[in-house]
Write a sequence for this structure.
């Protein structure tokens, strides 16, 4: 499956609705993935296997309906870009502070009421998008991000 991609840096697997790519194929190739994009409601079960994606650098979740993200997301050692868009999440767990390699965090179009203080521990963070949420205030610690 992954052999058809010339540039492994831009490799993507798109799963839409019920999923177009067999899950077994994805799991077999998981250790090679650098970028994963999940779309729609057919993706939550794949997230339960996210711990296998040890080389993952970029994770984009759009419209995936779940009550919370699996804890393995916060433990991906090479994750540099995390976009959680239109997930209808109303909070973000403190475990986000474990993503020490994170450079880009997109949280747009959710229902977030606050940003956990642990975000400010992500000293390598270069971009933070919190647009289209329900934030009532921004913590004073936001000034620590440069």
């Amino acid at each position: 499956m992954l052999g058809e991609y010339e540039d492994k840096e831009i490799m993507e697997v798109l799963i839409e609705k019920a999923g177009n790519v067999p899950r077994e194929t994805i799991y077999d190739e998981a250790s090679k993935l650098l970028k994963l994009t999940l779309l729609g409601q057919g993706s939550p079960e794949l997230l339960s296997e996210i711990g296998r994606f040890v080389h993952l650098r970029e994770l984009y979740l759009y419209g995936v309906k779940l009550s919370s993200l699996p804890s393995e997301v916060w433990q991906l050692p090479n994750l540099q870009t995390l976009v959680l868009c239109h997930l209808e999440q109303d909070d973000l767990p403190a475990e986000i502070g474990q993503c020490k390699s994170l450079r880009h965090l997109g949280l747009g179009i959710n229902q977030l009421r606050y940003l956990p203080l642990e975000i400010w521990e992500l000293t390598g963070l270069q971009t933070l998008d919190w647009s289209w949420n329900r934030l009532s205030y921004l913590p004073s610690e936001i000034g620590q991000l440069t």
